[in-house]
Amino acid sequence: MSGNRKLTAALLVPLLVPMLFSHCRSKTDREIIAALIAKMAVQVEKKDAAGLIARLAENYNDFEGRDRTQTAAMVEEYFSRYRGIVIKVLASRIELRSVQSAAVEADVAFYSGAASAFRKLIGFSGENYRFKFTMEKIDMWTIRSCQWEYIPLSGLFPESLQILRELFPDL
């Protein structure tokens, strides 16, 4: 090996080894739950009702008493009414209650149709909702129960409001 290659290898090894180990590290439950929330937002945008329902526990119910089947019907009906759904997960707060239980609150902004295309132009920040999940982990994390409510800008988590201000400086 030439002197330049040895020098290059000597400089790169300390940089690459931590990167390799960071990819091998298991994700924490908080990271897994945050990734699940982000993936669900993508599923809503793709109108993937089956994918969303698969994330619900077998004994799921929401704040209005809907089970998995009734929730699937509600989601399908919602998807049929709106074109171009866009979701922005703002901030999430994840509380691990045990190795098998978590409570999650997430502020989410919804846009649809033309509002999505012109939101920056017209300064429309969408409709904001706070979702509250209880989650359980058997083989994987699933949503055991859920409730949601419309949240005005003044009711958002401070970190959610900061994200919206970055997107819409005129807020």
Detail the topology: elements first, then pairings.
Blueprint (H helix, E strand, L loop, with lengths): L2 H22 L4 H17 L3 H5 L2 E7 L5 H14 L4 E13 L2 E11 L1 H10 L4 E11 L3 E10 L7 H10 L4
Parallel strand pairs: 1-5
Antiparallel strand pairs: 2-3, 3-4, 4-5
Report on the structure:
- The protein is of the alpha+beta class and 171 residues long.
- It contains six helices and five strands; from the N terminus they run αααβαββαββα.
- The chain has one domain: Nuclear Transport Factor 2, Chain: A.
- Residues 7-13 have low confidence and may be disordered.
Core attributes:
single chain; 171 residues; alpha+beta; Nuclear Transport Factor 2, Chain: A; five-stranded mixed beta sheet; 6 helices
- Helix/strand/pairing category: alpha+beta
* CATH level-1 class: Alpha Beta
Shape: globular
Describe the largest sheet. 5 strands, mixed
Summarize this structure briefly:
The chain has 171 residues and is α+β, with helices and mostly antiparallel strands. The protein contains 6 helices and 5 strands.
